[in-house]
Specification:
Number of helices: 2
Mean pLDDT: 85
Low-confidence stretches: 1-28
Distance between the termini: 119 Å
Shape: elongated
Radius of gyration: 29 Å
CATH topology of the largest domain: Immunoglobulin-like
């Protein structure tokens, strides 16, 4: 009888120890969660459906991702192993946008905000627009009286919504394009709303806000590109440290137009 009782006690001890061991929780690998939202627009300023925007941690394996709901909200767990990372926002019709984060001081998250630096938060917000649908067919410039006129013919499947073009200009640059324009100047670009077909917009030659530094006899060159109202631009603070404009199409098949200032 004593042997039976001893066996039962030993068995109970083994079972108890086994139960205690199995009840120990697995290590937590997702200590922090980013709660965010998006506001989505067409290529102009018209608000559109906020759902279906994919939000993923760049380079995560397996991929950590989610999609926005009908109100544009999302929640995303952040693995403990990530110290610096980017959230990648993507949806058909939108240029890929990135938002940068760091884990500092234990499990506290900081989000990089342009011109403000790293801010303590776990809330991500993105205001994004669709890519431009504009195709520029022709572009020319002329002097008429005391004004300079710009003529631009465009086509777009967006027949009713707002559309834009982005014009650059520089003196004595016969091969002017977005890649070689001098962006250190205060005045080097102008953008405006356009409609399907022919568009003409003009300015007086003495307007200082646009033509600062121009003089009589100067040979001025111009080029024009399709543009969205929201460029979805971001500074790749964790990568090449350059500003990216995923929505803007700075490529065209047009030669620069030119005039000589009278």
């Amino acid at each position: 009888m004593k042997k039976i009782m001893l066996f039962l006690c030993l068995f109970a001890g083994i079972v108890t120890a086994s139960c205690k061991k199995s009840s120990t929780p697995a290590p937590d690998t997702t200590l922090t969660q980013i709660n965010g939202s998006v506001l989505l627009f067409d290529e102009g300023e018209k608000a559109v459906d906020r759902s279906g925007m994919n939000v993923a941690i760049d380079g995560s394996n397996p991929v950590v991702q989610t999609t926005t709901d009908n109100n544009g909200f999302f929640s995303l767990p952040v693995p403990r192993s990530l110290k610096s990372f980017a959230l990648v926002y993507s949806k058909p019709g939108y240029g890929t946008y990135k938002d940068f984060w760091e884990r500092q001081k234990g499990d506290t998250l900081f989000n990089y905000v342009k011109d403000q630096g790293w801010l303590k938060t776990n809330v991500g917000t993105a205001i994004l627009g669709q890519k431009t649908t504009v195709t520029i067919n022709t572009f020319s410039v002329e002097i008429k009286g005391d004004s300079i006129l710009f003529h631009c013919n465009i086509t777009s499947p967006n027949t009713t919504g707002d559309k834009y073009v982005f014009m650059i200009y520089q003196k004595d640059n016969a091969s002017l394009n977005y890649g070689n324009v001098d962006k250190t100047k205060i005045y080097w670009y102008y953008w405006t709303k356009v409609q399907n077909g022919d568009n003409t917009y003009g300015f007086c030659l003495t307007c200082p806000s646009l033509f600062h530094g121009w003089g009589s006899g100067d040979k001025m060159y111009f080029n024009v590109y399709p543009k969205s109202f929201y460029s979805n631009s971001y500074l790749d603070i964790l990568g090449d440290n350059l500003i990216h404009d995923p929505n803007d199409i700075f490529v065209n098949n047009l030669s620069p137009a030119s005039v000589t200032i009278p």
